[in-house]
Amino acid sequence: MSGFSPDWLDLREGADHRARDAGLVARLAEALATRPAPLAIVDLGCGLGSNLRALAPRLPPRQSWRLVDHDPALLAAARERLLAWAETGEERADGSLVLRHGAATLAVSFHEADLVAGLEAALGPRPDLVTAAALFDLCSETFLARLADAVAAHGALFYTALTYDGRETWTPPHPADADALAAFLADQRTDKGFGPSAGPDASAVLARLLAARGYRTQEADSPWRLAAGDDSDLIRALAQGQAQALAGRLPEAVRADWRAARESARAASIGHVDLLAVPEG
Fold first, then answer.
1. Using CA atoms, how far apart are residues 26 and 29, in angstroms rounded to an integer?
2. Which stretches of the chain are DSSP H helices?
3. Are 162 and 131 in contact (CB under 8 A)?
4. Residue 222 contacts by C-beta under 8 Å, 6 or more apart in sequence?
5. What angle do CA 147, 210, 155 make, to 5 degrees?
6. pLDDT digits 0-9 by tens, 224-269
7. What is the pLDDT of residues 145-167, one digit of tens each?
8. Rounded to an integer, what distance in angstroms lies between the CA atom of residue 196 and that of residue 190?
9. Which string of b and e fits 49-88 if b means at least 16 CB within 10 Å?
């Protein structure tokens, strides 16, 4: 799987946190409240720890987080950002952290892992919750079936946020928008390291796979709603990243004109879906 830069992950964090569906997070917290403390939470593809920062203040207060990523540089940066985010932080001899933020007390450990080769081991011994953000649209249906099997084997809850769903609206419109989106979606379905990606179908695929394994599933839209001004840097970076993915898929002059228009867009809505799955009974 290709990596993500810390700059990109930092840039998108505010939009990610605004976009999450609050009702689904509240239902997740309610479901976890029946489990004994401390909650064992595994965050796959944790990046800089944004998913933890979004969820931890909204879950029952005693939590143990297992942060998993393939990139040791991102894990090191996540440690720094979490220590800065916490009101108090203590580093243990084994490299883990004890953090306090608001009412929450968190034990946090960091694990470098290749999810393709070691998914089951990455989940640890007894997770109460397996979670991720902005990850599974990069994964194949075969990998997602393995994930569903591993989650169900533990009877864990499952929550993922910000899975790209292929819906985009840019303002003002551009004549190449439809062709650019079709080309971008074609790129989305290529192999990102997990086999041919499910792309915008990933959330629906996960919901189907988990339902077949005895889970009740709920989905909720979580679109980015970006506006020039506060979000201009993110709009520009998003346009640049998408235009890069379109290389060879659109005539170069069309791609360059589309990129220039999108970098200066007044607004953009980028579709995502959040998914919660709770085992029956």
1. 5
2. 6-19, 22-32, 50-55, 72-85, 115-122, 141-154, 177-188, 202-211, 232-245, 252-263
3. no
4. 19, 20, 21, 161, 162, 272, 273, 274
5. 75
6. 999 999 999 999 999 999 999 999 999 999 999 999 999 999 999 9
7. 999 999 999 999 999 999 999 99
8. 5
9. bbbbbbbbeebbbebbbbbbbbbeebbebbbebbeeebee
